[in-house]
Specification:
Layout (H helix, E strand, L loop, with lengths): L1 H17 L11 H4 L2 E6 L4 E6 L12 H10 L6 E6 L12 H6 L4
Amino acid sequence: MKEEIDMTELGEKIVTVLKTIYDPEIPVDIYELGLIYDVFVNEDREVKILMTLTTPNCPVAETLPLEVEDKVKTLEMVKDAEVEITFDPPWSQELMSEEAKLELGML
């Protein structure tokens, strides 16, 4: 039971870290933008993040995934982190949270 609580806590900490990373062209964090599709954590506390970019030729395509990996790896409970980029499904404004839409004046 304790392991399950730790995993929940770890998941929350990962989300907190993701909310500190911003797309440089949009003043909203990548989590609220809907760029994070899924976060997987195994028993060994290895994290895999499935994410997308706003466009395939996004100017931060090389640096943003590395920033995500590096920041998640700073968590004490994380042994390793890996980011996989996907464009299936492609990102769209519908993936943004209400908070992000409000921040960008879309509501």
